[in-house]
Amino acid sequence: MDALYTRFLAPAVPAALFAVGGYFLIRLRFFFCLHPRRALRKMYGGKQPRQAFTAVCLALGGTMGVGNITGVALALLVGGAGAVFWMLVAAFFAMAVKYAEVVLAMDTRERRADGTFRGGAPYYMRPVGRRHGFLSLLFSLLCIVCSVFQGSLLQGNAVGEAVHVTFGAEPGIPGVALSIAAFVLLLFCRPLLGRVCALLVPLATVLYLFLCLAVLIVHRGDLGGACLAILHGALTPAAGAGGFLGFFTSEALRVGCARGLLSNEAGCGTAPLAHITAEGSTPAGQGLCGVFEVFLDTAVVCTLTALACLTSGVRGSPDAPFSYVADAVGTVFGRAAMPLVTVAVTGFAFATVLSWAFYGLSCLDTLTRSAPVRVAYLVLYCGGLIVGCVSAPKSVFRAIDILLAVMTLINLAALIKKADRVVTLSAEEGLLVSRRRADAPARAPRAESAAQYRP
Fold it and tell me: What is the mean pLDDT of the chain?
């Protein structure tokens, strides 16, 4: 499986992500880049902004997590500083992809009898007029398995390492505490998951940004050297390998795109499962919230993590990515660095646990509504938090890379098939004026034009 990923999936994912993202950027005419004010008005113009914000925080709970901290650290240690450059490049194209998948999810969602919504990638993948399709079923199964690895094993591994390094406690202790808290919330308080994430994500983000900015201010003299190292690491492998193909054979690109996908989830079809819960938000407005998520997650948080590590001058090991980040923060905060970073990691991790459990349960609902099956999934999911505390991080990351790569390729194929619908919905909401008849919505004549024909 490792050879399959390295030789085929790893080069295929960035190629497909760049191609599909570039296609949507052209079809959407770069509107959120060229017209940011219009995009911001549409993003905050919903009838119920509080519910839209809760949906965004639930989605950010799945993105703003361990991938921003230990994932970026591992990318630097394995792929070099150049991985940061490719994370940013992939994020630019991923913005259009995430916009498209959220718009389609909002357009195809269905309201249950209890007033909640169901939808997401499994719904816009299915054939018209059918309840299920092969791709929608396959995607749901992959998402359920990936939720256990990404939302349970990986988060437990990060928290277990953080608590063990900081306080010397056994890694299994925080795993047991997290599993009990998550099981109670997921089994009895599922409607409150968005509110919990809306509390945890902003607090953990503010704390972590403060730590990273403090490191950059203290080591500001090394900031220029860190930026040069990023550019040198990103471009030199391509020059050595020869031409365009060198980009897709470089370790920096493969690791950078993989960690970027792990962090912002753009293109893999999971985040729309959270966005469909927004009441009163339009498809394009919620899609622009997805664009904001990618920007905040990768362009801001991941970049600050990488710069803090590079400017600090500390060295780390791929077997202990958390210690690499904590040592970087420790150059400024000393002994207080470990507890502070541990608090941020724990807050991010628990929000991610809740978000990915929500994704897994949503995909499970498309397959069966059996209560015993749901409870069995929650037992397996919460038990994975304990197992993840003692598992090797590299093996967990590799399993997640493979699952996310397959999910992404399936989802990108579905997005391309329904690209016209994305453009049509965007045009209907006034975000772009399409030149193609197939994309342009039918508009009623303006009142002032009709007045010209009155006697």
Answer: 80
Quote the DSSP letter at residue 150: I
At 135 the three-state DSSP class reads helix
Residue 360 CA to chain centroid, in angstroms?
A: 15
Contact 226, 81 (CB under 8 A): yes
Residue 27 in tokens: 């079809």
Report yes or no: 205 and 61 within 8 Å, Cβ to Cβ. no
Query: What is the distance between the alpha carbons of residues 123 and 118, in angstroms, rounded to a whole number?
Result: 9
CA-based torsion, 113, 116, 122, 124: positive or negative: positive
Rounded to 5 degrees, φ, ψ at 363 are -70, -35
Residue 256: closest CA among 238, 272, 242: 238
Residue 11 CA to its chain's centroid (Å): 20
Residue type, 104: L
Output the pTM of the full model.
0.82
Place of tokens 């150049």: 82
DSSP E strands, 230-311: none
**Distance in angstroms (rounded) separating the CA atoms of residues 279 and 304:** 33
Q: Yes or no: say if 49 and 297 are a contact pair by the CB < 8 Å rule.
A: no
Position of tokens 């809740």? Answer: 354
CA–CA distances in Å: residue 122 to residues 241, 360, 395: 39, 12, 28
Tell me how far the alpha carbon of residue 116 is from its chain's centroid.
23
Say if residues 252 and 394 touch (Cβ distance below 8 Å).
no
For 168-192, b/e burial (b = at least 16 CB within 10 A) is eeebbebbebbbeebbebbeeeeee
- Residues paired with residue 339 on neighbouring β-strands, in sequence order: none
From CA 155, how far away is CA 384, in angstroms rounded? 9
Count of H-run helices and E-run strands, the chain: 24, 2
Judge whether 103 and 287 are in contact, CB under 8 Å.
Answer: yes
Residue 377: which pLDDT band, with cuts at 50, 70 and 90?
A: very high
Average pLDDT, integer, range 374-378: 93
Amino acid at 148: V
* Alpha-carbon span 215 to 230, nearest angstrom: 18
Give the integer Cα–Cα distance in Å for 229 and 247. Answer: 17
pLDDT exceeds 80 at position 248: no
- Nearest Cα to 362, choosing from 263, 262, 276? 276
Residue that has been written with the tokens 């970087």 in this structure:
328
